[in-house]
């Protein structure tokens, strides 16, 4: 059987699939050509990340598809229920990228509280001529230790983020409609660990209490953070979104950044992805990454081998 990994797959995943008797195709096929390519090459499994969309049109046009796999967590680029109604297996790897995304969250948090994103723009331009001026401009940093991190969505990635926050000495609060409470185990290099229980609270109370807010939710119909929510947050709050574009009203966010209500934002995902708005890209108070939350070698290895394992189990 043939597997089309249209958005790529790790070498470890390819080797595992080939060992299981599958032929892996890593040719990048344009979205409008995916259905034709699948049919012409008798592809049984299509694997995607966030770029390729597998909607009803492809599902209807490709009766030979047996599995649709998503390398990562969110499956908003796949018509999951429709695929399942056609007898197609839909799989993903919800646990494989949790630590990678959580570490990126803290990359943005550290960048925001110490102005690293802006300093790295200006040091090459003015470092030799205005060193003292830049030093003064970036001198009012903030420590994360002792501050309150509000986590919206305390699933796998939210829990991984909570562990890192606890390790830094932060207070962690969470809001989650589906998880009333969760035990978070922080493990250390020498085998020791501590476990603490995080109890979900209302979104409104989280917004009012948190010094920093990070979102870990699937795609939504509306905004989780808009003008109303920004208004009740602490002055000088920091906001990070490494989840999905469209959960923050970016127009309202820019206004809040300009007014000083929000001290900084860290964005890995965007409303108009893959063409983020210029007002977002050029803003000096926003730390930016191009949707790379799961893009570490370790995470991609875990994703590839986990997808391979599921495919082999389902089709062997």
What do you see in this structure?
- Residues 107-293 form the D-isomer specific 2-hydroxyacid dehydrogenase NAD-binding domain.
- InterPro entries: D-2-hydroxyacid_DH, D-isomer_2_OHA_DH_cat_dom, D-isomer_DH_NAD-bd, NAD(P)-bd_dom_sf.
- This is 3-phosphoglycerate dehydrogenase.
- Keywords: NAD, Oxidoreductase.
- Residues 9-315 form the D-isomer specific 2-hydroxyacid dehydrogenase catalytic domain.
- The protein folds into 2 domains: 2-94 and 297-315, NAD(P)-binding Rossmann-like Domain (Rossmann fold, 3-Layer(aba) Sandwich); 97-288, NAD(P)-binding Rossmann-like Domain (Rossmann fold), CATH 3.40.50.
- Helix 1 (11-19) links the parallel strand 1 (2-5) and strand 2 (23-25).
- A 6-stranded parallel β-sheet has the order 7-6-10-11-12-13, sandwiched between helices.
- The mean pLDDT is 96.
- By secondary structure, it is of the alpha/beta class.
- Helix 1 (11-19) packs parallel to helix 13 (297-315) and helix 5 packs across helix 8 (156-167).
- The protein has helices at 11-19, 34-40, 56-61, 80-85, 98-113, 116-126, 131-137, 156-167, 203-209, 227-232, 250-259, 278-281, 297-315; strands spanning 2-5, 23-25, 43-48, 67-70, 89-92, 148-152, 171-175, 181-187, 193-199, 212-215, 237-241, 262-267, 286-288.
């Amino acid at each position: 059987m043939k597997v089309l990994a249209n958005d790529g797959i790790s070498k470890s995943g390819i080797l595992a699939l080939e060992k299981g008797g599958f032929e892996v195709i890593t040719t990048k096929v344009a979205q409008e050509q995916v259905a034709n390519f699948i049919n012409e090459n008798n592809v049984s499994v299509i694997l995607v990340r966030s770029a390729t969309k597998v909607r009803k049109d492809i599902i209807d046009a490709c009766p030979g598809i047996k599995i649709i796999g998503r390398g990562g967590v969110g499956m908003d680029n796949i018509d999951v229920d429709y695929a399942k109604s056609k007898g197609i297996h839909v799989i993903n790897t919800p646990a494989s990228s949790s630590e990678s995304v959580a570490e990126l969250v803290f990359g943005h948090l550290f960048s925001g509280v110490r102005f690293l994103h802006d300093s790295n723009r200006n040091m090459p331009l003015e470092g030799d001529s205005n060193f003292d001026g830049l030093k003064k401009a970036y001198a009012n940093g903030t420590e994360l230790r002792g501050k309150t991190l509000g986590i919206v969505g305390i699933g796998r990635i939210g829990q991984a983020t909570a562990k890192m926050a606890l390790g830094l000495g932060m207070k962690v609060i969470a809001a989650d409609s589906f998880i009333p409470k969760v035990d978070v185990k922080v493990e250390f290099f020498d085998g020791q660990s501590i476990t603490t229980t995080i109890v979900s609270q209302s979104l409104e109370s989280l917004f009012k209490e948190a010094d920093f807010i990070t979102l870990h939710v699937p795609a939504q119909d509306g905004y989780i953070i808009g003008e109303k929510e920004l208004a009740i947050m602490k002055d000088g709050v920091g906001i990070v979104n490494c989840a999905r574009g469209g959960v923050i009203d970016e127009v309202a966010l820019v206004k809040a950044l300009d007014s000083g209500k929000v001290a900084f934002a860290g964005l890995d995902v965007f409303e108009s992805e893959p063409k983020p708005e210029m007002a977002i890209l050029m803003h000096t108070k926003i730390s930016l990454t191009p949707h790379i939350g799961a893009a570490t070698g370790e995470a991609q290895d875990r994703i590839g081998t986990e997808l391979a394992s599921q495919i082999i189990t389902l089709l062997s």
